[in-house]
Write a structure and sequence with these properties.
The protein is built from 13 helices and 17 strands. The chain has two domains: 100 residues, Urease, subunit C, domain 1; 271 residues, Alpha-Beta Barrel (TIM Barrel).
């Protein structure tokens, strides 16, 4: 991406310290060449800079959504399968722009986006958040990433991997090869299906998927490449097996219990709940062609999602922000804040979308903080976000300004 060489100074800001979880008034943040060059407090003279006076407004680090699908431009998997990649990419443009306008300057794509789309954003061809891609998720035959309808031997697909389709791999050798192939194609982390899913056609929600040897093989390949594995899992057994094998983050995790949470804590794993997608699917189930079997699975996990967050928080498991929305439901991204408020404080929710998510993505000090040396990813909002997040959730509200890597993409100051 081509960055402005000018110096910018944002003065008189109430800065959200995402590590300490407190607001710090009277901040001046200096931005140069897309990076935060300095953070000072009190009366500070800044020379040779374009100055923006924030008049005491809150300044947040760029937000991070650790579970998105930017190429899931439809909730209908079969429709996506028959959509050409050029059309999916064109439709993903609006998804990316919407996320950035909501203040998300970095996202972890949990399946679908490829290295070409990540590079399009990096070059500035598309405006959007920084993409940390998983490529295709690894799935056993009949697992959550195997979207073939019952009786179908093959999946006819014109989408060239864009979407939600798994790399089907059975046995340790195939799993290693599939993981290596994702890494070869630019994956920043490996996604594996370690348990049953809600919207997949053939697998029970309580089920475990992949043997321990297969799970370890994926984790070993990721570790060898200096990265990690994220695992789709709901049931306590699936969660415990995954983290014992070396998985770094559990996605969804709605059926988590205290024993599984303690195992997660002992293994240093993160939880990435995604409440927004269940609320959206439940509300729109009637017009989305959700089958009775899928609807029953949806009800089971939706009812347990907030309890899983309470359990994880009580056991000290770090909780990152995620949404997992599909198709037209992407616009509900900011509803995740209010849904989590039943179990977490505004500060805990914000930390999950900033410093905790950055740690999960192995990007500590680069994103999720306002500190010298970090990317100049900054969000300006009205009010005190440590007391309530209405400014991010209320209709017609949202960030007054969004800066990514030193460039304003939204500026209503």
């Amino acid at each position: 991406m081509s960055l402005s060489r000018r110096r910018l100074a944002l003065r008189n800001a109430a800065l959200f310290d995402s590590r300490a979880g407190v607001m710090r008034p009277g901040a001046t943040v200096v931005v140069e060449d897309g990076v935060i060059a300095g953070v000072e407090f009190g009366a500070v003279q800044v020379d040779d800079a374009e100055v923006h006076d924030l008049a005491g407004r809150a300044l947040l680090p760029g937000l991070i959504d650790a579970h998105v699908h930017v190429t899931a431009v439809s909730h209908d998997v079969l429709r996506l399968a028959l959509t050409p990649p050029s059309l999916i990419t064109a439709q993903a443009k609006d998804v990316l722009e919407g996320m950035l306008a909501r203040g998300f300057t970095s996202v972890r794509d949990a399946a679908g986006a490829d290295f070409g789309l990540a590079e399009a954003v990096e070059r500035g061809i598309f405006a959007g958040p920084r993409l940390y891609i998983s490529g295709q998720p690894l799935s056993q035959t009949g697992g959550h990433g195997d979207v073939r309808p019952k009786g179908a031997r093959r999946m006819i697909c014109t989408c060239a991997g864009l979407g939600l389709f798994g790399a089907i791999a059975d046995g340790v050798g195939e799993v290693r090869k599939a993981a290596r192939d994702q890494l070869r194609n630019g994956a920043h982390q490996i996604k594996i299906m370690a348990g049953g899913g809600v919207m997949s056609p053939t697998d029970p929600i309580e089920g475990t998927q992949y043997s321990m040897e297969e799970l370890r093989a994926a984790c070993e390949e990721a570790e060898a490449a200096g990265t990690y594995v994220m695992a789709h899992a709901y049931s306590p057994k699936a969660i415990e097996r995954a983290v014992r094998a070396g998985v770094r983050s559990i996605e969804h995790g709605n059926l988590l219990d205290e024993a599984a949470a303690r195992t997660m804590k002992a293994c240093g794993a993160y939880l990435v709940p995604t409440l927004a997608t269940y609320a959206a699917l439940a509300e729109e189930a009637g017009k989305l062609n959700v089958s009775p079997e899928q609807l029953e699975k949806l009800r089971r996990v939706q009812d347990k999602g907030i309890e899983a967050i309470r359990i994880a928080q009580a056991e000290g498991v770090p909780i990152a922000f995620g949404t997992d929305l599909l198709g037209h439901m992407h616009e509900r991204q900011s509803t995740e804040y209010a849904l989590r408020a039943k179990a977490l404080s505004p500060v805990q929710i914000l930390q999950g979308a900033t410093s905790i998510a950055a740690d999960l993505l192995q990007q500590s000090g680069k994103i999720g903080v306002i500190a010298p040396g970090a990317f100049a990813d900054l969000v300006v909002v009205e009010g005190d976000p440590t007391r309530g997040l209405q400014m991010l959730t209320a209709p017609g509200k949202g960030p007054l300004a969004v800066m990514k890597q030193g460039r304003f993409y939204v500026n209503r100051l």
